[in-house]
Amino acid sequence: MRTLFGYEEEPNFPPRYNGAAAQPIGIVRQVDGKRHFVLVRWGLLPSWIKDPRTFSLLINARGETVLEKPAFRAAMKRRRCLIPADGFYEWQEDGGRKRSFFIHAKSGAPLAFAGLWETWTGPYGEELETAAIVTTRANQMLAPIHDRMPVIVPPEAFDLWLDCANVDAQTVAALITPAPEDLLEAYEVSTAVNRTTNDGPKLQEPVVAGQLQPEAVKPPTRRARAKRVKNDDGQGALF
């Protein structure tokens, strides 16, 4: 990871196999020309929010509107980052149930998601650093599973994405495209990944045909469904 992303720190951050919203994730950002690894909360909180308790987690930033949305506009100009990962999960609707898939590079190499970060400062001087993943429409390989995917930045474009001081947002927006068709592969995994309390390498093992699946996450209650925001634009959804 250090060789690929070029950061100076040796964080020894333990592997995570089921990262979820509001949990710590690692990002790589550039400060004074040098790259640094930092832990932040997954779920961007714009600096102008007065009370975080009244603001929904923004785990995604839709690439199509990232230059205009007030929540992401400033970060797109000044606070771009990379989010290292070995892969990501996605869910496919299948006759009323959801099948879980793990998507990763065919080569087994780490991936770099395009990210945005922000620092929120509270009324008593407390600070909270947060981040969101920039997403785009799925490529043809992933489209049968889901219609969105994270923007994956190739290593040769790391400098371009991270150099906020010299590369403007409009120029770097050209990187917001679906991944090449030959980059990724997907396979079905256990529905155990649906529970955020589950973690460990077994979550990424392929499902064997006929294998009994664990109990899926219970459907939301009527009250929970009523709280969903109408016309959700997907900024708070997993891709």
Description:
- By secondary structure, the protein is mainly β.
- About 10% of the residues lie in helices and about 30% in strands.
- The radius of gyration is 18 Å and the shape is globular.
- Say what the CATH topology is: hypothetical protein yedk fold
Distance between the termini: 24 Å
Structural class: mainly beta
| Number of DSSP-assigned strands | 10
CATH homologous superfamily placement: SOS response associated peptidase-like
- Contiguous runs where pLDDT drops below 50 for at least 5 residues: 215-231
Binned, the helix content reads 10-25%
* SSE run: HEEEHEEEEEEHHEH
* Overall geometry: globular
Strand content: 25-35%
- The overall pLDDT average reads 89
Gyration radius, in Å: 18 Å
Give the C-level CATH assignment.
Answer: Alpha Beta
Main beta-sheet annotation: 7 strands, mixed
Provide a brief overview of the structure.
This protein is mainly β and 239 residues long. It is 11% helix and 31% strand. The protein is globular.
Strands, helices and their partners?
Layout: H1 2-5, E1 24-31, E2 34-42, E3 60-62, H2 70-78, E4 80-85, E5 87-94, E6 97-105, E7 111-121, E8 127-137, E9 148-150, H3 158-162, H4 169-172, E10 184-189, H5 222-226
